Amino acid sequence: MAIRRTPFSIGSFAAKQHLPYRFQCQYEARRTLSTTSSSLDISEDVISESSHHPSPPSEETVKYQFRPPRYYRGPLHPHQPPPPSDPSSRLFVPGPFSLARLEQTYTSTLAPDLLSLLYTHHPPGQLPGPVPQRLRSWDGSSPYHKNRPLRPPRGSAVLPLVRRPITFRNIPRLEKIVVHTVIRDKENRDSAWLHVAGMIVQAITNVRCTVYKAKHSISNFGLVANRTAMAVGVELRGEDMFCFLSKVVDMVMPRIKEYRGVSGKSGDNTGNLAFSLGKEAVGMFPEVEVNYDS
User: Fold this and answer.
1) Residue 150 and residue 134 in contact, taking contact as beta carbons nearer than 8 Å
2) What does the DSSP 8-state code read for residue 107?
3) Which residue in 104, 111, 259, 276 is deepest, having the highest Cβ count within 10 Å?
4) What gap in Å lies between CA 218 and CA 199, rounded to an integer?
5) Which residues are paired to 213 by β-bridges?
6) How far is residue 294's CA from residue 291's CA, in Å, rounded to a whole number?
């Protein structure tokens, strides 16, 4: 069966360079067939075979390669960037190739111990006990107690957060560490002191710090709202968090003279813990101590 060949124009040849690899192979096959004699009859089997089994690409053939878009243009745009876990993504970061030593200690030692201490076992087929009432009721010793709303818990007018039962899926673990410093002296609150504080925080945490400005204007302290920079801070997560905590626990705290540890009253019942380090303790970090004159 003879077929009719359609000659290719110059415009289609120029557009061939921007076609995917599969269409380029079909284009090369059809172009090779078009250069033969006009009196030659070609069957459909030859065309179909050449399209399904293309010849190996030559050096002149431009291969199609996906390039993620440089800018994100919204969820409805036809060209969406790949996820950050894809190696072809512009946001792909290889690693981590190893865990921090403190994180390995938590995974192998602390997590099983915490699960043993906090886990409450319920045998199969047995439901957990009733939840106790969080608000206190009145004892009824006075006629004025009738129809009164329930009282808040003792010691605080705010109800504590409801604790979920601890299982192997939600073992308590460290989520983030916030490191910040405040320049309290009015005469030292200028850009030079703030830059030094930012460089020290960045050196000991390995994270670029953020500058915080005053929220309220106080003339006695020389503060102007949204203009006076008075503090710097960073938020640590992941590997940087464990590395910073291991330096504090292993290298800084043991060298503090007459150090009695972190006070047990510095935290709350929701897992937050806060403590401070003086300027002498900050100088014991290896990144700061190496810059001291011998």
Assistant:
1) no
2) I
3) 111
4) 27
5) 229
6) 9
Strand (E) or helix (H) holding 181: strand 177-182
Helix axes 239-247, 191-205, angle to 10 degrees: 100
Task: Compute, in degrees rounded to 10, the torsion defined by CA atoms 202, 205, 210, 216.
Answer: -110
CA dist., res. 288 & res. 282, Å (int): 8
Residue matched to tokens 């921090």? 100
* pLDDT tier, 10 (very low <50, low <70, confident <90, very high otherwise): very low
Three-state SS for 159?
coil
Cα distance between residue 30 and residue 37, in whole Å: 13
Distance of CA 252 to the CA centre of its chain: 27
Cβ(21)–Cβ(57) below 8 Å: yes
What pTM was estimated for this model as a whole?
A: 0.62
Q: How is the beta sheet containing 177-182 ordered, strand by strand?
A: 177-182, 229-236, 210-213
